[in-house]
What does this fold into?
Amino acid sequence: MKIPLISILILSGCLLNAAKTLEFYFIDVEEGSATLIVSPSGESLLVDTGSRGPDGRNVDRIIAATRSAGIQQIDYLLITHYQDDHYGAAPELVQRLPVLHFLDHGPSIEAGKDAKWKQYWQIGTNDRLYAAYSAARARGKYTLVKPGDRLPIKGIEVLVLAAAGEKISASLEGAGSPNTFCGSTGLRTEDRTEDGQSVGILVTFGKFRFIHLGDLTWNRSLRLFCPNNPVGTVDVYLSTHHGMSIAKETSEVRWGRSCCPEAEVYGLRPRVAILNCGENYHRLGTPRAWQVIRNSPGLEDFWQMHYQAQGGKDHNVPEQFIANLSTRDCAGHPIKLSAEPNGGFSVTNTRNGLTRRYRPR
It folds into this structure.
């Protein structure tokens, strides 16, 4: 039977649309975090911007990622929390690239006259940065997000799991089983900073699942994942709080701001983890969190944005899985991830071109 040409063209177009992937660019902002997500529909979500960096370096790297992704604007900019390494570049970014819609957890607890927590070195600095961000935010649409909200991005689901110290009230479909790792990871000193206010999201594309919890701190994480795990498992886990975690208490603030308890990491059971930390960013903690992530049941591969000087040979992955080997003359190589709706995905180290493919499970 002869098939009409118009039918062949329509079928080809459907297959082409079905083949589109969900793209992630983990941008090297060295001392912070910035993740560009481009949906199969072409809509973009940028999660954090990093600090401004020297001479606007981090905005340059974000714009380079948008060009690689073939997009002309940021449709949604989600700020997980108000600390310089996560939103310091936002005011300049808005000057150089259209940003249509801003998302955050609401007022900062570290800025303004009603700030609940400030350290002496932050007085004035946080206020100025938050004011600059607020002015930039006023140039576009704005939504205050809460746990349970879903972002209106076509082709994928972006669910808010945590925001402003609160968490989702009900387990997701197929999740909610008792978390067996809660008993071995008890509460620590309460965190009083913006880190604990972080917006955490789950991105779902068919069977593929990715989680980004910002800088969610120890106790906030335990309250999210214990006694039952409301999220279930994920395919890819971006290290929470840059992998900052310590094994014993050295000061109240550092203790409370630790991240990556076993109940979070092991409960999520990621197939792939990505450590988004600069070379010397958290000198006190990364080796402990690195080991927790590395020991996660079912982990197939661990990728790093940077070599960790404090980790040495025992707490760094093989060089082929590290995007940036040194901050000296650092080219800022991103890590790229492409996901398919069947749950399969690939990860590429843009420094050396290494690509690993992961079959649907």
